[in-house]
Amino acid sequence: MSEESESPRGSPPAPGYVCSLSDALVAKAREELQEKPEWRLRDAQALRDMVRKECPGLSTALDDAFLLRFLRARKFDYDRALQLLVNYHGCRRSWPEVFTNLRPSALKDALASGFLTVLPHTDPRGCHILCLRPDRWIPSSYPITENIRAVYLTLEQLIQSEETQVNGIVILADYKGVSLSKASHFGPFIAKKVIGILQDGFPIRIKAVHVVNEPRIFKGIFAVMKPFLKEKIANRFFLHGSDLDSLHTSLPRSILPKEYGGTAGALDIAAWNEVLLASEEAFVREFCQPVTTCSSLPDETLRPEGLAADTQCEDSLRAVKSQLYSCY
Is the pLDDT of residue 322 over 80? Predict the structure, then answer.
């Protein structure tokens, strides 16, 4: 443990960092992320020093394990890791509807709906699979921001694992039955913010997005999203339609539930919901305390590109519906 490692005020001291990666993952991190085990704590100390110098008012954990998430997500580029850390905290201030009182017990309706879950098996590269099913969401039951909160909680839980930090995640999105009225809730304003968080405001590597059962309406949804996607991420979208054989070339049947042509049993949302609800206290400590931000940086520095001010995202719902109607 670095002598400078610490936790936010009011939290117990962070335990010393102990690497949990297997030898194979240590080698993978070295090759793909430029992570050198012998320099790991030195790199965390360098990022810690940068935070203290450039953003002394930022209320953030500074222990080695926490900082390594950001270093790995940006391949140990100190400057990019610092910007990601600042963006990560800026997200919370810029979207209070999502980040206020963010804890599993406040999201029981969204979790019970089956809108999202994490499959029990990883893909051949070791990536956890986040399964999204928009058809399970009933807009009259709760607002779309509750789904976004559930996704963010899931990402926070997944990124606790060093394996996930190295391997990244895969998203499996099932758009079966998504109607125009439901799709219209996901307009440019929401799309820009969500994509801004995933690309520039959270320390996770998205290795692939597999879309299945997409209706023609998805072309309109993707048209709304694409302007905000970086080329690298856009190239990781794979549209399979109802061709599950195509899906199975990337995600083998042995790891998929029967709903997607797999042999791993029926899709079960209960197990992942239990994982989240069991982590209630940790989320309360992290997300339900007063948040202070870095007063030494201008507001725009705290906001990822995809989280631009509302006035910078003036695309109207009428324009969105025009895009969607054209797909019928």
Answer: no
